Every structure is written in C-alpha cells, then in structure tokens.
Amino acid sequence: MKEFIKIMKALSDPNRVTIIKLLEEKELCVCEFQALLGLAQSTVSKHLKLLEDAGLVSSRRQGSWIIFKLLRGGGSVYSGAMLELMPGWLNSEREIQNLKLRLKDVDRLRLCSA
To answer: What are 82-96's pLDDT values in tens digits?
Structure first.
C-alpha cells in the first residue's frame, strides 16, 4: 500500500500533474519547466524529485543539463497504470492546452545557457 500512496501523493499537486502532462509531449529539463510554469528552480526540482521517487519520471545527464522523461513501465505496477491512463485525462483543460502550445517555443539552448 505504501507504494500506491506515494504515487497518489505525487499526483495530488496540480504542478506535478502538469509536469506529467508536459512530459507526455517530450523530454524537458528544469529550466524549460521553469519557463513554462513560472516556478523557481528549487520548486521545480522538488516537484521532479517527488515524481522521480514515486517512479513516474526518470532523469539522465546530457552535458550540463538533467533531462526528465516519463518512466513508462520502469516503475511499479501502480505508476505504470497511472502513466498509461494519464494521456486520456485533462486534455480539455485550458491551462494544459496553453502550456502544450507554448512548449514548441521553449528552447533549451536559449533558456539554459543564460
């Protein structure tokens, strides 16, 4: 039950759900999340750490960046089930739609090298 509760807690925050919805589109780094969500780097990092600890996202180093992606099938049965269902949820939410539209204009090279 602990694993299930950890995943539900990770998904109980609107910013973390939004992060999952953005990662459905493509892999992103912290500065890209900052630009899209308008949150401080430390806040974004805390959200990503919780999602990673819950087995919903994974990270890898690419040069000086830490790139995050959805952890499909690599987490628990519960995280896998949630990640399988999430693409069908919340797509009509205006905020999610707007962020996904803005996502194509987010440029990691421009944002993160400043």
So the answer is: 999 999 999 999 999
Q: Are 34 and 22 in contact (CB under 8 A)?
A: no
CATH pick for 2-94 out of 1.10.10.10, 3.40.50.970, 3.20.20.70, 3.30.1330.40: 1.10.10.10
For residue 55, give the nearest of 8, 90, 7, 21 by alpha carbon: 7
3-state secondary structure 24-76: CCCCEEHHHHHHHHCCCHHHHHHHHHHHHHCCCEEEEEECCEEEEEECCCCCC
The helix/strand/coil state of 83 is helix
Is the pTM here over 0.90, yes or no?
A: yes
